[in-house]
Known about the structure:
The chain has a three-stranded antiparallel β-sheet, covered by helices on one side. Strands 1-2 form a two-stranded antiparallel ribbon. The radius of gyration is 26 Å and the shape is globular. Helices cover 53% and strands 7% of the residues. Strand 7 and strand 8 form a beta hairpin.
Amino acid sequence: MKRYAAVFFLLCLFLAPAISSSLAPPQAALSSPDNPFFKPYGTPFNVPPFDLIKNEHFLPAVEEGIKREQAEIDAIVANPEPPTFENTIAALDHAGIILSEVNAVFGALQGANTNKELQALARKTAPMMAAHRDNIGLNEKLFGRVKAVYDSRNTLKLDREQFFLLENAHRDFVRGGALLDEQQKARLRELNQELSLLTVKFGENVLAETNAFKLVIEDRADLAGLPPSVEAMAAEAAKQACLDGKWVFTIQVPSMTPFLQSSEKRALREKLHRAYFMKGDHDNEFDNKENVKKIIAIRQERARLLGYDDHAAFVLENNMAKTPARVDAFLKQLWEPTLVKSRQEAAALQAMIDRRGGGFKLASWDWWYYTEKLRQEKYALDDTALRPYFKLDNVRQGIFALCGKLYGLKFIEQPGLPRYHPDVQVFEVQEADGLHTGILYMDFHPQNSWPLASWTWPGTPWRTRPQSTSGNSRTRSWPISDSSPKSSPATAAPISWCCRWPLSLHQST
């Protein structure tokens, strides 16, 4: 089973209020008694029982989750009482807990342990979920109740959190098409259906292209310049690919980057780099050019249908920048000085090439290699010499210690908790006074299941089911990915950690 390319899988679970009705066993449990989603997890900290969840459990759980959330929405709409914050906005916020949980676990496992079966499920459930979201967002009676509460918001004496929830609920309906006429709503549904499938297909193609390429080296002479640790990593990759006695490099970043930094074989650097930046552009079954065109066209049409100039304006409305013009202005502030510095660096690299009798013009696949050589020449700084000081466990403990000093957080390893793969490390997160804050799952090593093949990236937060029938606690989770080569000793990219970890902490608030 393929795993998440480079997943540093962070699932921090935070307490939040919940409704007890979501704990009632779904009707589907009668016909699927072994489905973990249809009964209490019974795990410490109520974490998902990854060891029990199977591919065949997801589709029935998604279907039941949609059915249950729709019933909850219907109950809100049918409520004979006048719309209030509690019977409309709060009730809407509490709806769909089971569905959110199933989709979250499915998304996590699809990334961390994907396979053909899960990909087929994604293709099936994506349009189902798009239709379900539209059934809620375009429900005229439901929006009528939300709007009634929103219009009287200044007289309701709401606290800060309630006011925030109300404003966001109303905004989500408007941005979801609630103000459109029936013909426009029908067209919006069509666009969302098509977009749901295109985005799944796009990701599948990138993943397929990433996994399809292997730079197989048979002659040791072609390893010239590579440090022993990189050779060992490539030999292990070859062994896993049943190519014993050879060396394999891929376009996963932890494999590609050290090769581009150290390999003296320019033609091989070019081959590897081209494979990386040409993903989805090979006019084959995984080509993404038409998918990109369609996605752009649909996003543009949808944005204009909703009253925005373009998709960028639609997306940025909910972000700090607010408008494309402000983003452009910010990027221009970065672009102009960056361009000057980049030209200076390019000139320095070209001068080094010329001094060494290269006889060629600097290209993108040369940048990593000559930057590393220039760093060694000017500062006697060798990245490979520093790497042993950044062993994976050392960097992890350094980050933990930093969080302890800044925020009082403690990380206690929990080897007995369920995990989706033996390599995963699990930690309980506590406040300084010992109060349980969450659960942290870490899987550091690059595999073949994540289409972005990146270093580190945070994922989408989610809340899981209540831990008791009193509904007084519910967990919150989100993933963050990282790529560290599985070598001996394993090393990590501290800059990557320091960049991404604060964002993951921000998501916990």
